[in-house]
Amino acid sequence: MKFINKLFFIILLAATSTSCSKQLDLPPENILIESQVVGSVNSAQALLASSYFKSYTAIRNYYYMSADVATGISVTLATNGFISLWNGTLTPTSGLVQTLWNNHYSAINEANVIINLIPNATFSNAVKDRLIAEAKFVRALNYFFLLRNFGDGALTGNISGAGLPIQLLNYSNYDPTKNIARATTSAVYDQIFKDLDEAAEILTDLSTATPQVFRGRAQKTTCFALASRVALYKRDYTKAIDYSAKALTNTTQYTLASSPALVFPVTTATSNIPLSSELIFAFPVSYNSDIADNNLTGYFSKTAIWPAPAFLATYAPNDIRNSASMMVVGNPAGPANLVCPSKFANPVGRDHLPIIRVSEIYLNRAEALVRSTNAINGEAISLLNAIRQRSFPVGLKPAPFTIASFTNATDLLNAILRERRWELAFEGHDMFDKIRTGVAPNSFLTNPTKWVYPIPRREIDLTNGQITQNPGY
Predict the structure, then answer these.
(1) Residue 95: how many CA atoms within 13 Å on its side-chain side?
(2) CA 231 to chain centre
(3) At 290, phi and psi to the nearest 5?
(4) Closest by Cα among 286, 313, 144 to 229
(5) Which has the higher per-residue pLDDT, 40 or 390?
(6) Of 38, 133, 212, 230, which has the fewest CB atoms closer than 10 Å, so is most exposed?
């Protein structure tokens, strides 16, 4: 299945009124009703591809970058509209929040169509089971991103706060009696884990798929890896330890590269770009060689967004992640004093969008091990060393950390979080890592009520207030 952006023709048509004539009951040309979408393997796979693509559309670009701009890892122009995503000036009527909400719920709806209607399809049970399992992963992924951004208390430990409307049925037509209030943050977390657990039970790690398909679609390991992050965000460290162990079981297909430069090699290719075995899940650039279909991150030009020189100065000398192999020239016509991260250095934006990497799972596990006991942990130090040591050239590696390197658990946690910031820079993590650890992302965002986005006013109005607003808006 190719994940391309030419699936917009799959439009779901609600059932028309029974009072209409038979002729009027016919769907318009070029529009597929739900039963047709799931009526064959090809159309069902196309709908699944569409749900993945809509997830990508919701996550990419400004939304992806804003988490690093918010904390000073990256810098952007003050005139960029997406600054309001992190400076506390978002309003319930903002088009940005409405678009994010719509995009995620649109992906969820398509996943729901597969989950609810595929069981009645006539093709093989094995194919149906895998489609449903992947759809559950897609649903969990989108609910996680929604909860992280809109859920009251989702990152601050208040799991009794208002989370999201948990919609598990596919949309048929607008019916106000079917409006759903926001479930608690705890209930949304539980639904995410339920979907990921059920998906993992069915999925296997495919052994014959191409890297683009393998790392761009949910596998068993993908579910465990995402669940390890979800558990860390929820502060359920026992679960984070368990899921991270499962995610690190397949050491054949998911491996920590010997150097971070090997994970993100600079390339000018426009198609068939390799995916590193360190990438557990990514949105790969389209295989249709359409150079207009790119991730639009803007790092290459160095005129819209660029790594902050002050942040780069925090790396230790000789750290590969701040070397010429990973902080490259980018557009030679751009400012000479600025650089472009190799993660997004393709001149035409033909870069994969990394979502989960093996290195993150190492750090998830290390942090959870320390937090679960509030003690210095030997395994956590080993995991930290694995990330730290591979980030320096042979002969220039720093002395490995030992138990004696840390006076208490807090010292070790701080070292893990610093490493996480350096390792996952420009991948959209830092703002959320700060919030979940109780640190204001920036001087504009010191009010914790602004650490989540406002619920779109339209959603409140459509439900006559059944969906409530977040505090502070």
Answers:
(1) 2
(2) 14
(3) -85, 105
(4) 144
(5) 390
(6) 212
Residue 287 confidence (pLDDT) above 70: no
- Residue 33, pLDDT score: 60
Tokens of 96: 């940005």
What are the residues whose beta carbons fall under 8 Å from the beta carbon of 17, sequence distance 6 or more? none
3-state secondary structure of 162: strand
Do 61 and 297 meet the contact criterion of CB atoms below 8 Å apart? yes
Spatial neighbors of 4 by CB under 8 A, at least 6 apart, are 49, 53, 286, 287, 288, 290, 293
Neighbouring C-beta atoms of residue 173, cutoff 10 Å: 10
Which residues fall within 8 angstroms of residue 464, CB to CB, at 6 or more apart? 176, 179
Containing 305, the helix (H) or strand (E) segment is strand 305-307
Tokens for 170, please give them. Answer: 């596919």
Q: What is the pTM of this model?
A: 0.92
Q: Are the beta carbons of 118 and 128 closer than 8 angstroms? A: yes
Q: Mean of the pLDDT values across residues 286-314? A: 81
Residue 288, classed as helix, strand or coil, is: coil
Q: Check if the beta carbon of residue 429 is closer than 8 Å to that of residue 420.
A: yes
Query: Over the Cα atoms of the chain, what is R_g?
Result: 22
CA 359 – CA 190 distance, rounded (Å): 25
DSSP 82: G
Contact 376, 356 (CB under 8 A): no
Whether residue 228 contacts residue 243, with contact meaning beta carbons closer than 8 Å, is answered with: yes
